[in-house]
Task: structure prediction
Amino acid sequence: MSLTAEAVFQRLNAVRERQPLVHNITNFVVMNNTANALLALGASPAMVHSSDEVEDFVAISQALVVNIGTLYSEQVAASKLAVIRANTVGTPWILDPVGVGATPYRRTAAGALAALKPTVIRGNGSEILSLAQQSGQGRGVDSLHGSDAAVDAARQVVMTTGAVVAITGAVDFVTDGTRLGELHNGHPLMARVTGLGCSATAIIGAFLAIEPDAFSATVAGLAVFGVAGEIAAQHSAGPGSLQAALLDALYNLDQETFSRHFRYRESRIEPAKG
Amino acid sequence: MSLTAEAVFQRLNAVRERQPLVHNITNFVVMNNTANALLALGASPAMVHSSDEVEDFVAISQALVVNIGTLYSEQVAASKLAVIRANTVGTPWILDPVGVGATPYRRTAAGALAALKPTVIRGNGSEILSLAQQSGQGRGVDSLHGSDAAVDAARQVVMTTGAVVAITGAVDFVTDGTRLGELHNGHPLMARVTGLGCSATAIIGAFLAIEPDAFSATVAGLAVFGVAGEIAAQHSAGPGSLQAALLDALYNLDQETFSRHFRYRESRIEPAKG
Amino acid sequence: MSLTAEAVFQRLNAVRERQPLVHNITNFVVMNNTANALLALGASPAMVHSSDEVEDFVAISQALVVNIGTLYSEQVAASKLAVIRANTVGTPWILDPVGVGATPYRRTAAGALAALKPTVIRGNGSEILSLAQQSGQGRGVDSLHGSDAAVDAARQVVMTTGAVVAITGAVDFVTDGTRLGELHNGHPLMARVTGLGCSATAIIGAFLAIEPDAFSATVAGLAVFGVAGEIAAQHSAGPGSLQAALLDALYNLDQETFSRHFRYRESRIEPAKG
Result:
């Protein structure tokens, strides 16, 4: 059965009540915004990056967010250490492969992290396409177009990594290989604020902390974030005011408002062929 | 005699007139906000981190702020170098031991910095309790609760470090071992914005630059910041708008408004036993 | 012929249409704001710092911004690598020598970068004076005062580096050694928000990506940013609200509003004597 607005909001209430500690190894551009998005949601963010302490810190956290936006060698090492420990102690983690296709270094780092069994991977269409190409499935995804291509790429990445995969854009897609969720929330102005994709990733991280079904957690996180963005855009004069309004909207979001905006469709799909 | 609203505001005027250069070695999450809080207050912030230049920079600054929020080995080294030079040239400095209890690495770094004679240490209750436990006073502070426990821990940290100690929370406590200040300003919404504790630390830094009595400087900094936060919260729809409103309130704060909000009580206490 | 409001706005339209990719190696304080300023303008920002990928990334970018605000050894190395590649592939780049006069380390790093043929250098008066002193032109610029001194220093830096030089302040000056532009836009409140000089540098970077005449690109960038700041200040209650309003103003700026505010004068000057 498809996730209802009520079911999503129950999970938001769980985040607000339990205030899970979400460990972020993320980029320098969005650290402040991401922390504020998690606080506005009701979670407890921590930005902890040093290889000297990430293993200890992830062990006391309820979820881990790994984002390669401004990666550098020490951060890649710290991310791997944190992920290995997360996998050992059973902490769910989400990978945001920012700009993975842009440079060989980024492809190598993202590929190595994707191979370490993330619970969820979230990216935009070209990032997920890039990951799918790297996975060497024997067919080019370059030749495909639009949302069909994106969904196909997502299915390939599910197959090669075992992760739930989310592609965000004008429409957000989420798949675990057999379920396909489509979210029609958000607002175009959100693309003019830096790092809102990274905030979406962190928000999913908070839902992973309280919801064992990673597909449901991912849909819930994107739904809450998209609805908050939509409400914020209605009260914004531009991208500057949107940034503050989005945090206010996340903080104030109530079930009635959420249900009125939530636009979600779920279907069954065939897994990608090996 | 207890600090009056007028006495605090005189110090704010001194900051605004002298625009002291405040050297910050702080975490990546709050760098922007902290710089903006200092600018809105009337000080001149500089964020200078490299071990290649911190010694030179601290020597031309009027105060130093050391914050371990996103510490890493190079930053710990740079912090120690800056602190040693600050002590040599007589620059006051404040330590913010963010999350000190969370990992062994953080405990070691914060302990080493606390041993280097900070002028002031500011933390939340659990951070100061953690520092007190490390100081090895032979009795557990874990077993104590609430503000009595916090004040007791603060007194122990005063005794072992020689610093003025501030504990911020719903009520802020400041002590130098014999005086105890209690501030009842601020607003609960401030806890939903990342790094406002770090901003409070930086603001105290600015007051240390113009006020040789570290206890008075600390009370003044927390009072101004708490009152500004309180005013800002009245005009905010959530944590996003609070962040901007807080900077506006700091910038616009006048003596009449400050005096109307200032809620402070000062008493004499016994120093902690050695 | 002097640049007209229409000519400047045509260039803004070109940025909005082509959305150039602007590679930033910048400081940690302003990364978020700078990215947001570029997005609000209509450009595509990327913050990419690692020496493992800057050479690859600059080669796919249309402009490079190098800002030494929170420099450290790895960033200096990465900046040099990026600049050398930019020069090889013909990507224009702009240098922001933040605080160059403050420490020997900063002077060395800024001097080394300035020697690598930046397309444009933007700084405040004291930063450009400091660069001029380093250039060893045999006469002290310390003894000069006010805008004459600033313009004289700018001409010296033009002569020694070959760059277009911009000095921003209450009045902005731009010179390529023979043309001198004077911009009377902006607002004093802008000095109370951290990193707006850095944002101005990044905005110039975006104009360099679409305008081969570096002098015109620099004037256009400063004009658009100054006018946006001026409009934003009219709608701001302080430095906190200014920050958001500035992004909104950049995003919403139309030609009629821009033309009404644009205050620019251009004259011919003699190049500095060698």
In short: Confidence is low (pLDDT under 50) at residues 137-145 of chain B. Chain B has one domain: 5-264. The interface with chain C takes residues 28, 31-32, 35-36, 39-40, 45-50, 52-53, 56-57, 60, 74, 243-252 of chain B (CB under 8 Å). Strands of chain B lie at 21-25, 44-47, 63-67, 93-96, 120-124, 164-168, 172-175, 179-183, 264-268.
